[in-house]
Amino acid sequence: MSSHTSRTRQPSLSQLRAFAAVAEHLHFREAAGSIGMSQPALSGAVSALEDTLGVQLLERTTRKVLLSPAGERVAARARRVLDTVSDLMEEAEAARAPFTGVVRLGVIPTVAPYLLPTVLRLVRKEYPQLDLQVHEEQTASLMDGLLRGRLDLLLLAVPLGATGVTELPLFDEDFVLVAPSEHEYAGREGLPKSALRDLDLLLLDEGHCLRDQALDICREAGRAEAARAGSSGTGAGAGAPVTTSAAGLSTLVQLVAGGMGVTLLPRTALRVETARNEELGTGYFADPAPSRRVALAMRTGTARESEFRTFANSLREELRSLPVTITE
């Protein structure tokens, strides 16, 4: 057989399936029975595969069948090819049947601990055939994953302002001030935004969208230097530095409890992060309070758009018990 022929001809799935069965059973009759093929047809398919690949895959004797060294290597690859084809068929079946198969959900760290219990409860209750795979990452990484096809759906703060992404708003939630229990604003209601001008404010590390939202709130409150706050730990004038101190909200709250400053938390995080900590107090802003919007985001034109819109509607209903304002 010429090398040109071996390069242009390709094995069929039937040939690979026949050879994989023989490699598993090392017996032609048992292999044929395992895949519902006659023994002559199986033998012919294996011979055709050897001819196509230009290598001897089996060592045949009157008493048994053995894999050749080349057959050992080809058998492993044939099994991977057949497994991949099986996965492809499962994906196609999932596409035909909504709310089945895999959905890769990306979630930002300032949402995941507080909303995932509700999301997972909804999936278990309403969509038990859905294989939800959760990936917690920062916004930039999530957006890259969505646009490259690594992720299917995102749960994060918006607006994103990204081309090719459709947002499905879920709710708006207020920010609240978390301070040491003896702080003058602890337990207060109706706080003006201007109260933020002269506080030692603790923020998340750069890369978290919640940090950027907090800085925007500070600018609205009149902290003109907030825009320059950076990882150096300084930035908001008049003796009120904006200090980057933590990679997560739990650490921020512990720093507040230790008297190092105050921070802003979204309402959905408040119960989880401050419950049963007597060293913390909460201050609520006057209307309109600073807030953020949380949404699902999908690729514009995705084949699962209808499915994801239905999921968003169901999730809004599940979220009504939280201290948020549902966006209809």
For the terminal residues, how far apart are their CA atoms? 68 Å
Identify the overall geometry: elongated
Order of helices and strands: HHHHEEHEHEHEEEHEHEHEEHE
Computed CA radius of gyration, to the nearest angstrom? 29 Å
How many strands, which pairing sense, and closed or not: the largest β-sheet?
8 strands, mixed
Instruction: Please mark out the parts with pLDDT under 50 across 5 or more consecutive residues, or reply none.
Output: 1-6, 226-239
What count of helical segments does DSSP give? 11
Assign a percent range to the helix content.
40-55%
Q: What number is the mean pLDDT? A: 85
* Content of β-strand: 15-25%
What structural category do the secondary elements indicate? Answer: alpha/beta
The total beta strand count reads 12
